[in-house]
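Subject: sequence -> structure tokens, single chain

Hey, anyone have a minute? Need the predicted structure for the following. Not urgent.
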Amino acid sequence: MGRYKDTINDLIKLLDIELNKFALRYRAKAYYLIEKYKESFNDVNKLLKIETNNEWPSKLSAKIIEK
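Reply:
Had a minute. Here:
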């Protein structure tokens, strides 16, 4: 789990510099994997605004809601 937290911290730094859909996607997935569903859901919602034609954020959102 420590690696996911390190990854999340790196992605937070990147996202502080610029909004990046790939960084948001990876951070949402990392949050999901360490069971931080609220944080993951927040990132997924941001992704849904950026990537309106991408199914991945919707699928992860559905998984989070199931939890």
